[in-house]
C-alpha cells in the first residue's frame, strides 16, 4: 500500500476495498468483518468526496 501514494483518493479506496475482498476470498478474514469495513470505507469515501470543492 505504501507504494501507491501517487493514486488519487478514488483509486486508493478502490484498491483498499479490493484487498479486503481478496482477503475474504482467501479465507483470512470473515465475511461479516469485511462487509462492515467495506461499508465504513464506502460511506467515508462519499463524505470525503462531498468535502472536496
TrEMBL record:
<protein>
    <submittedName>
        <fullName>Uncharacterized protein</fullName>
    </submittedName>
</protein>
Amino acid at each position: 500500500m505504501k507504494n501507491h501514494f501517487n493514486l488519487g483518493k478514488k483509486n486508493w479506496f478502490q484498491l483498499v476495498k479490493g484487498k479486503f475482498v481478496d482477503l475474504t476470498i482467501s479465507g483470512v478474514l470473515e465475511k461479516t468483518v469485511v462487509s462492515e469495513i467495506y461499508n465504513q470505507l464506502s460511506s467515508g469515501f462519499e463524505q470525503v468526496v462531498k468535502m472536496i470543492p
